[in-house]
């Protein structure tokens, strides 16, 4: 039976943050988020993450000449985030899934769009095929409002005539790389994201999004935040380390980076420097088959058949050492506690109350240029930034007060 741990998704626009909290260029806009867990057991987490991994990896290979038909796996995500987004003037509110792994913004999965005076039809068709769903409809130009005050005019939005696979949200707010919209709309090369349009309208001084999560310890944690146009200095410690998006395809099509992973005080090599992606739509940290085998050998973990996750005994956990991720020449520690699935959520994955499960999973042996995914369980320990220009795109990372937390 499906277990839905619904973390009520209210999105409020906080424009009154003090200057000491926000690194202000023009007008950074902070949008708090609350995550949703949707799963039946741990094996669903591992299987769904691997499906998403394969679809991201194969995107360039399966892309067709038909407008907009390529997979952007979102709908099966275990951990998702939604935002209440206003469309039109006066605004009609829509509950949209926020996704860094896709870039189209669209509505209408579970509502009827009534064009207001701010809406302009384009006569163009949009279509996006997802991992387990599809949306087809018309492209409109309309006004998008985040919260009550951040108004973005002239935004291209898809209005669904047909959609499948979206039962709990009314569409998607895509904030990933703009090139992911390529081929989704007839007669257009790409469709600007909300970040692009807000920047073009002069609302933001920087075309970037800061992303902050905190470790989830219950089924009702409001533990996410997006900051458009700047970074929230209250959410990280030290400096943000910026690096260029990787040049290795297909990771370069996403928020892709190069990194090395080692284990323990001896810095045992787990994954030599290689390309992969950071992704809010993936739950686990996925490693290539060879790296996964080295990790299991180093930790002594075994696969738990009930949950589909690696499991340790109490003595093994006591001996578990940190993983070290080297990104842009800086080493980031991922502690033993960070490697543990939150004990408070064990029941949701079919695990035992005191079971010790790990958040490192197996991507498989055919990685094809994406040799890892740093999913939500990694991102909740660090502050990350996606800067889409102008100029070369880059990724930023910094430690947070939760990097060394023992909440799990």
Brief characterization of the structure:
With 408 residues, the chain is mainly beta.
Structural notes for this entry:
By secondary structure, the chain is mainly beta. Helix content is 12%, strand content 38%. It is built from five helices and 27 strands. A hairpin with a 2-residue loop joins β21 and β22. The longest helix has 21 residues. The protein is globular and about 65 Å long. The protein starts with a strand and ends in a 9-residue tail after the last strand. The N terminus is likely disordered.
List the helices and strands and how they pair.
Layout: E1 3-5, E2 22-23, E3 29-33, E4 35-39, H1 42-62, E5 79-87, E6 92-99, E7 106-107, E8 120-129, E9 134-146, E10 150-164, E11 171-174, H2 194-200, E12 208-213, E13 224-228, E14 231-232, E15 237-244, E16 256-263, E17 268-278, E18 285-288, H3 289-299, E19 302-303, E20 310-312, H4 314-319, E21 323-327, E22 330-334, E23 356-357, E24 360-364, E25 372-374, H5 376-379, E26 382-387, E27 394-399
**Percent range of helical residues:** 10-25%
Total beta strand runs: 27
Query: What would the average pLDDT be, to the nearest integer?
Result: 83
Q: How large a portion of the residues is in β-strands, by DSSP E?
A: 35-45%
The N- and C-terminal alpha carbons lie at a distance of 26 Å
Low-confidence stretches: 1-25, 60-77
Radius of gyration: 20 Å
Largest sheet, spatial ordering of strands = 22-21-16-17-25-18-24
Identify the overall geometry.
globular
Which structural class do you get from the secondary structure elements?
Answer: mainly beta
Sheet with most strands: 7 strands, mixed
* Helical segment count: 5
């Amino acid at each position: 039976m499906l277990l839905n741990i619904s973390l009520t998704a209210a999105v409020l626009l906080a424009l009154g943050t003090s200057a000491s909290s926000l690194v202000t260029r023009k007008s950074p806009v902070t949008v708090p988020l609350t995550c949703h867990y949707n799963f039946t057991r741990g094996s669903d987490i591992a299987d769904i993450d691997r499906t998403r991994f394969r679809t991201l990896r194969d995107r360039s290979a399966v892309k067709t000449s038909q407008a907009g038909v390529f997979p952007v796996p979102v709908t099966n995500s275990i951990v998702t985030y939604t935002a209440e987004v206003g469309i039109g003037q006066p605004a009609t509110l829509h509950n949209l899934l926020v996704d860094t792994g896709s870039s189209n913004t669209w509505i209408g999965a579970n509502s009827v769009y009534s064009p207001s005076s701010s809406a302009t039809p384009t006569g163009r068709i949009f279509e996006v095929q997802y991992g387990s769903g599809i949306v087809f409809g018309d492209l409109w130009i309309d006004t998008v409002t985040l919260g009550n005050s951040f108004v973005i005019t002239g935004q291209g939005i898809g209005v669904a005539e047909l959609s499948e696979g979206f039962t709990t949200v009314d569409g998607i707010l895509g904030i990933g790389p703009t090139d992911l919209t390529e081929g989704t709309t007839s007669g257009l090369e790409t469709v600007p994201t909300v970040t692009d349009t807000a920047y073009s309208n002069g609302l933001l001084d920087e075309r970037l999004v800061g992303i902050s999560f905190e470790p989830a310890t219950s089924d009702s944690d409001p533990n996410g935040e997006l900051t458009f146009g700047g970074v929230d200095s209250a959410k990280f410690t030290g400096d943000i380390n910026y690096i260029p998006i990787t040049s290795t395809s297909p990771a370069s099509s996403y928020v892709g980076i190069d990194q090395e992973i080692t284990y323990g005080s001896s810095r045992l090599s787990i994954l030599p420097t290689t390309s992969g992606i950071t992704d809010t739509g993936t739950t686990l940290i996925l490693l290539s088959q060879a790296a996964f085998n080295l990790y299991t050998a180093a930790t002594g973990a075994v696969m738990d058949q009930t949950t589909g996750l690696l499991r340790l005994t109490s003595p093994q956990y006591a001996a578990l050492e940190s993983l070290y991720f080297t990104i842009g020449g800086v080493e980031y520690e991922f502690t033993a506690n960070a490697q543990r699935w939150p004990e408070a959520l064990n029941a949701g994955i079919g695990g035992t109350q005191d079971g010790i499960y790990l958040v490192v999973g197996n991507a498989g042996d055919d990685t094809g240029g994406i040799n890892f995914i740093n999913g939500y369980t990694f991102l909740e320990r660090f502050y990350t930034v996606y800067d889409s220009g102008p100029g070369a795109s880059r990724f930023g990372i910094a430690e947070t007060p939760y990097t060394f937390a023992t909440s799990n």
